[in-house]
Amino acid sequence: MLKSQTEWPEPIIRVQSLSEGCIDSIPDRYIKPPTDRPFVNSCSSYDNDDDINIPIIDLGGLYGNDSDVRASIMNQISDACRDWGFFQIVNHGVSHDLMDKARETWREFFHMPMEVKQQYANSPTTYEGYGSRLGVEKGAILDWSDYYFMHYLPFTLKDYNKWPSSPPSCREVFDEYGEELVKLSGRLMKILSKNLGLEEKVVENAFGGEEVGACMRVNFYPKCPRPELTLGLSSHSDPGGMTMLLPDDQVAGLQVRKFDNWITVNPAKHAFIVNIGDQIQVLSNAVYKSVEHRVIVNSDKERVSLAFFYNPKSDIPIEPLKQLLTPETPALYPPMTFDEYRLFIRMRGPRGKSQVESMKSPR
Prior knowledge:
Pfam families: 2OG-FeII_Oxy (PF03171), DIOX_N (PF14226)
GO molecular function, one term: metal ion binding
CATH superfamily: B-lactam Antibiotic, Isopenicillin N Synthase, Chain
Domain Fe2OG dioxygenase: 211-312
Helix content: 25-40%
Order of helices and strands: HEHEHHEEHHEEEEEEHEEEEHH
Organism: Pisum sativum (Garden pea)
Strand content: 15-25%
InterPro entries: DIOX_N, IPNS-like_FE2OG_OXY, IPNS-like_sf, Oxoglu/Fe-dep_dioxygenase_dom, Plant_2OG-oxidoreductases
């Protein structure tokens, strides 16, 4: 059984501090192997083609009276989950003012004095708080980013003392933002369930019904003098259920793998970027697929994004839904709780799609 590590293997260095001190080079600890670097073997010609982007889906007619419009939106979501694992949503019902306020409140936090932020320094035990690395492998090549990780659900894990008290509006804004995103995630879960040919609550119930988990990781990507050598976040698929990303709509950075190409996502104004996580890939028996993605950094501009993770209850086994299994399509994955899976990921750090693929049942 994997055991959690309580301390980081090396002293933590804040990337924001490095950024302020680095003029034309970066420390070796952040230089990726040539095969993993952006702009070398991995940025496709798609990257500069405005016509290539993950699907943008307008949810505006989803709850209207026009059944054809509803069916079209449902089909667009189904195709995106099967073909891309990623899509953007607009007219989603979350206030644009709240979205802007959430992003800019967190930008303000990351520009506060270091001694203020250090009060919230995290550990590998929960990752909750202010952090600068993922995984506990000593000597690992690190990503060019700092972050803040917080729990929202279940309420037993929600600890305001672990949330920043400054800027003063931070806790209030995240409370409202979290409430809105839980509602929006729940609506999308029903659509995913119906698109699998199931009753609308089946996928949500497999997540634990009213006892789902939710947390948020705020990403801060400082300016980097050598962006071609490093990544803000290494290639990975999200270990949880479904992710709602509020991107920095002024600075592109998210890249999604499509076949052998890395496609840079052009964020639509006031859109959320939604992606399928490993747990929904398991539940759907790989009908819906979590997809590798990564983040590139910028030499001229910092970038702030908010990733809201909608996850299963942590201690119930997640396995392919029985309704989707046939003799021709047997279960691809054994049961595993999200707690077990998350710990497995934390010990290893981001590693593409190898995490979920390694869990497949022997055939």
